[in-house]
Predict the 3D structure of the following.
Amino acid sequence: MFYIIGLGLCDEKDVTIRGLEAIKRSARVYLESYTSILMVQKEKLEAFYQKELIIADRDLVESDSDAILKDAAEVDISLLVVGDPFGATTHTDILLRARELKIPVTIIHNASIMNAVGACGLQLYNFGQTVSLPFFTDTWKPDSWYDRIQENSKLGMHTLVLLDIKVKEQSEENMARGRKIYEPPRYMSIPVAVAQLLETESIRKFGILDAAETLAIGLSRVGGGEEQRIVAGTLQELNDADISVYGEPLHSLVIVGKRLHHIEAEYAEAWALNPGHWKDIARRVYGCNIN
């Protein structure tokens, strides 16, 4: 049996009982390490699971999935992923490969940012398409995500923006020379994300991201107890805020849609950098009947 097991959002104790039982009886256990990260180190997971973990990087999962699936028709093999197994398309790819090889598969679900984002006070059924925002470079500034935000905006829906992480990435020079030298990990912060959003708006000019009047909510370490941070304000306020208010990575961002309900606005006001200004924008721009 091939198991894909969601680990949740925080630490070693977020795994479900079903997931832990599958881990313990597996002959090999892989830890997918590049679509997201947990808030604890691999060694702490191994101690809790009482199992050695094999790191599964991008190359292994995307280019050599047969190595992970080897013998899975005869013994239990587990792939552990942060959040929920279906939080990244990569995991669907390996499931399709398992299907081709006639390997039985079991999915064990868990919490992910896709549902835990409700902690900010916005209702999940008011969210539209989720988008991923990659790091810009001097020569590469993709903007297909802007079209998805625009589509959500037309419907008044909120947009969850997943911020880029760079783990085990090579520089262009090292890649060209075939050198297995990797850059230090990088995690996109909320101010960097907001700056990229506004830069793209200045080029596309559809008026869906207004620095002064578009409300947004930044989140970090969701599900992490005391480490969790939620910060609300206009895009400009989030851009100008001191980086320390956002806490440690991973960060996510929500662009608030114009169908904002007054109960959502009132709940999220608790996280606002400037509650009075948040309330004013919610009333004047979003049409909320908020006290």
User: Anything to note?
Assistant: The two ends are 56 Å apart (CA to CA).
